[in-house]
Write a structure and sequence with these properties.
This protein is mainly β. The protein has a single domain, classed as Porin (Beta Barrel). The protein is built from 1 helix and 20 strands.
């Protein structure tokens, strides 16, 4: 049983991976020309095996298993002065050794266009569809302003379809002022039948005023309409921040702001307001070591309970060290809190639900010479959840290879 499940997944995904890799290699071997081509084409292939100590995230009846992951993809980039376009298509297969009900196939695409000059006016649009389970590996490719954060919590990881689209317009007013206006759409549909579908429309205005050669002041206005499939009305979120960002710095980059947020609850007159913040920072401590930190909070509709509202806080910390040209170490962690506004029913009792999760990942990468486009890695992660309704812990250990052509 264990072998048959793995062999089936391996055959399907490796066959596709070999075809994509060969196609990417052929595309990359065009005849040389005097000027560089505006096109860049690459093929992606990922293979790995992982041990999971608690595949169902259960508090008392833990079941462990081993799964095989395989992914293939193609990326195309076209770049000329004042115009950039990129596209990514990918497919992913996960096959468990013993628990076939957990097997999963995912796929998706990401498209992005940008036109204009940064010193004048820039238009950008993006669109993406992704079918994912577990971590949304390509979510950062989009980074839309309407991204729904419910699935950051490992406790609600399910098979889901994510559809995102949006656009931005950025304008520079001389050397000292910038303005950026954006709209984003996000629809997250659950395929397991256990969670609520959430749709979000968001708009953002961000202005920057140069303070020094290396810093600028920021103001940000953000608003969104959030809709749940079983709620007639929409939740309305509004936030305002003042902050600071760095400009043209080599060692330290910072973009952070703080302010005030308000959420109008759907189907009621209740209004929640609170302190609000959002920031990212990185520090190149040495030529080979980089530290990164991000933190944000917000309010959103729950994917678990009709009409309930969640205050969330997410903090991420990571460090990467390039020991040699080929050898790298990284350590990252995520801390997440979900605090539900309305009481929920748990084991016939009405309780106030609060989820507090911590995850840490240690990874080793080695890029094989001479071209270093083939990378082997090993990874260990630990995740714990302290919740009013369920506590659990998960350990994962795995290894694999990544090929980029």
């Amino acid at each position: 049983m264990r072998r048959s499940h793995l062999v089936k997944g391996i055959r399907t995904t490796i066959a596709g991976g070999v075809a994509v890799a060969l196609a990417g290699s052929a595309l990359g071997q065009s005849e040389p020309v005097n000027e560089p081509s505006p096109w860049k084409l690459s093929a992606l292939l990922d293979l790995g095996g992982v041990y999971d100590s608690n595949i169902d995230r259960d508090a008392s009846n833990e079941k462990d298993d081993f799964f095989f992951d395989a992914g293939v993809g193609v990326r195309a980039v076209y770049s000329v002065p004042d115009f950039d376009a990129s596209g990514l298509g990918f497919a992913h297969q996960r096959a468990y050794a013993e628990t076939s009900r957990k097997n999963f196939s995912g796929f998706g695409e990401v498209l992005k266009l940008s036109y204009g000059a940064p010193e004048d006016l820039v238009f950008g649009v993006y669109q993406s569809f992704r079918r994912v389970e577990d971590v949304d590996a390509y979510g950062e490719e989009v980074a839309g302003i309407a991204s729904h954060d419910a699935f950051l919590n490992a406790d609600v990881r399910r098979e889901r379809d994510i559809c995102e689209a949006g656009g931005t317009v950025g304008a520079a007013f001389g050397d000292k002022r910038d303005l950026k206006v954006g709209y984003g759409f996000n629809q997250t549909e659950d395929r397991s039948g256990n969670l609520l579908d959430i749709t979000t429309h968001a708009a953002q205005i961000e202005g920057a005023q140069r303070l020094t050669d290396r810093s600028a002041g920021l103001f940000t206005l953000l608003g969104s309409l959030q809709e749940s499939e079983n709620v007639d009305d929409m939740g309305v979120y509004k936030a305002a921040r003042l902050g600071l960002t760095t400009r043209r710095t080599d060692r330290i980059t910072l973009k952070a702001g703080a302010g005030y947020q308000v959420f109008d609850h759907p189907d009621s007159s209740e209004v929640s307001d609170a302190f609000h913040y959002d920031g990212q920072a990185s520090w190149r401590a040495t030529d080979k070591t980089v530290l990164r930190l991000s933190a944000r909070n917000g309010v959103q509709l729950s994917s678990l309970y009709d009409g309930n509202v969640v205050d969330f806080t997410v903090i991420r910390l990571g460090v990467t060290t390039q020991m040699t040209d080929a050898f790298a170490l990284s350590l990252s962690g995520v801390y997440r809190v979900d605090d539900y506004h309305d009481p929920v029913v748990f084991e016939s009792n009405t309780v106030h639900r609060r989820d507090e999760g911590i995850a840490a990942v240690f990874r080793v990468d080695y890029a094989l010479p001479p071209k270093q486009n083939l990378r082997v890695f090993a990874e260990v992660s630990q995740e714990t959840m302290d919740s009013t309704t369920r506590d659990y812990a998960v350990t994962r250990a795995g290894a694999g290879v990544q090929l980029r052509l």
